[in-house]
Specification:
Strand order of the largest sheet: 4-3-6-8
Bound molecules: copper (II) ion
Order of helices and strands: HEEEEEEEEEE
Strand content: 15-25%
Shape: rod-shaped
CATH superfamily of one domain: Cupredoxins -  blue copper proteins
Low-confidence stretches: 26-31, 36-44
Mean pLDDT: 74
Structural class: alpha+beta
């Protein structure tokens, strides 16, 4: 008799535990989603007349208010504007000024000094001249008659000078040189040579 009661209690306990376990582990049935309702339009005699499409009713959605997140703004660093380095200035090399040409002190070569003496009308003209040493004296016979230039004590010795002929003699030593015509005794002249 006691065993029967105990067995019954045990069965009750098992049933209770099993039911609790079943209800806790079984998935909760989800309610069926409402099927979208399609509006039916009246069908005319010529078939369905779709005149307007149903405008979906906008369901007002509550504005989602998101609390402003505190932004700890650290000021963005100012953009560094890199200025390009200045272009190198082309170095215009000015050539150094050309050295001024040294003044050429040209000592002209001593021009040969030529002193002319004309022989005309049986006379030397000028009859007396003074020249520096190294001077060349040139006689020209302008007479139709022949003449000579003949040094008395050395010096010039032209020989016969016909009309138009010339004779040159350079006096390279100082002194007084007398000369005359070998053909005409009255023709005399003097060349004085100085340093
Ligand atoms: Cu003469």
């Amino acid at each position: 008799m006691n065993n029967t009661i105990g067995a019954a209690i045990a069965v009750l306990i098992l049933i209770t535990i099993g039911g609790w376990w079943f209800t806790s582990s079984s998935p909760v049935p989800t309610p069926e989603l409402a099927q979208p309702t399609t509006e039916s339009f009246p069908v005319g005699p010529n078939g369905p007349q779709v005149t307007e499409t149903p405008t979906p009713v906008a369901t007002p959605t509550p504005p989602v208010v998101t609390p402003p997140t505190p932004v700890s703004k650290t000021p963005a660093p100012a953009p560094v504007i890199q200025t390009p380095p200045p272009a190198p200035v082309p170095v215009v090399q000015t050539p150094p000024p050309a050295p001024a040409p040294a003044p050429v002190t040209q000592t002209p070569p001593p021009a040969p000094t030529v002193t002319s003496i004309a022989i005309a009308s049986f006379a030397y003209s000028p009859a007396t001249i003074t020249v520096k040493k190294g001077t060349t004296v040139k006689w020209t016979n302008n007479d139709s008659a022949p003449h000579t230039v003949t040094g008395i004590n050395g010096g010039p010795a032209s020989g016969t000078l016909n009309n138009g002929q010339t004779y040159s003699y350079t006096f390279n030593s100082t002194g007084s040189f007398n000369y005359g015509c070998a053909f005409h005794g009255g023709m005399f002249a003097t060349v004085n040579v100085t340093e």
